[in-house]
Write a structure and sequence with these properties.
Elements (H helix, E strand, L loop, with lengths): L4 E8 L3 H8 L2 H7 L5 E5 L9 E7 L10 E12 L3 E8 L4 E13 L2 E9 L5 H5 L8 H15 L8
Antiparallel strand pairs: 1-7, 2-3, 3-4, 4-5, 5-6, 6-7
Length: about 160
Amino acid sequence: MTNERLEVARTIEASPEAIFAVLRSPQGHVAIDSSGMLLAAEGTDVTKVGDAFIVHMDREALNDYPLGKYDVKITITEFEENRLIAWNVAGVFRGTIGHVYGYTLEPAENGTIVTSYCDWSAAEQKWKDAGIFPVLPESALRATLGILARTVQRPNGTTH
């Protein structure tokens, strides 16, 4: 982890395939969001670099910048089936500011080690200087991993 990358990891008792099924789905992103910002998504499951979908957002959930409701375009920048997915976020009125979100999945004895990250090392300097990174705190990334675990695990301990 660097001062321009925030990452957290958790072992989830589910297969990489079950976890990746959620992460490749626009609706999956909404379902596991811990910030409250993601309201809904439009699009189909992503299958490769360059695929994209729209997410309807509400920044008021964070109570930090008065952006209200807006849409963003999520474009997949890295994709390796059941191992890695990453994307950038582009606003409606401007392109991406250079930060990337992603997940890596590594099979483990008791499930899958899932690492969630936000990397703003490639962001434009003016955005770095604005002090907006990380957009979400470490606790939000951790909470999202907790929701992901709950989403892919059945109440009796078996996975989907």
